[in-house]
Amino acid sequence: MFERFTKDARAVVTGAIEHCERAGEERVDEPHLLLALLDREGSRAAFALASLGLTGRRDAVVRDLAEARRRGGLSRAETDALAGLGIDVEEIVSRVEEAHGEGVLATGRQGGVRRSGRCPFTRGAKDLLTASLRTALAHGDRHIGDEHLLLALTGRSGVPAEVLADHGVTHASVERVLWGGGETKAG
């Protein structure tokens, strides 16, 4: 499938691996792909993110992703569902951090040594890459661009889509900017 990726999409995948390695984490996940998308300039995904006002808010997105990672990767929707059952996730996180240290629940840090030189992808990250292929095909595209990765990311449930939605970037808004009804479109 990687042979179908455009130069920009390949740069996102490579950037996600670099984000994972810099963070000292074992596996590339969806937030790493989001961070790599935010790094892009001059691409269709970068155009969409800028058009939707995300430029200049990268630090806020990074902070929101870090907060979710601190909660063990739970989205706000999952945290709210647990609260409905009487489970206070913040209280649990605080107690665990008191006993074992700050950030201990952060996903992706398992200690130990990787067998190969590169971080493997989580099931969720692999599923996102597959979804980007389906997204490209649904738009009549033979190649997967970074815009298809962004659409696939916003079309899934989970922390990255939730964080983007909090900043006004939804699947529908990205579709509208890139392909929608007579408005400015990326070329």
TrEMBL record:
Keywords: Hydrolase, Protease, Repeat. It comes from the Bacteria. GO terms for biological process: proteolysis. Coiled coil: none annotated. One of its GO terms (molecular function) is peptidase activity. InterPro entries: Clp_N_dom_sf, Clp_R_N. Residues 2-187 form the Clp R domain. This is Clp protease N-terminal domain-containing protein. It comes from Streptomyces chiangmaiensis. SUPFAM superfamilies: Double Clp-N motif (SSF81923).
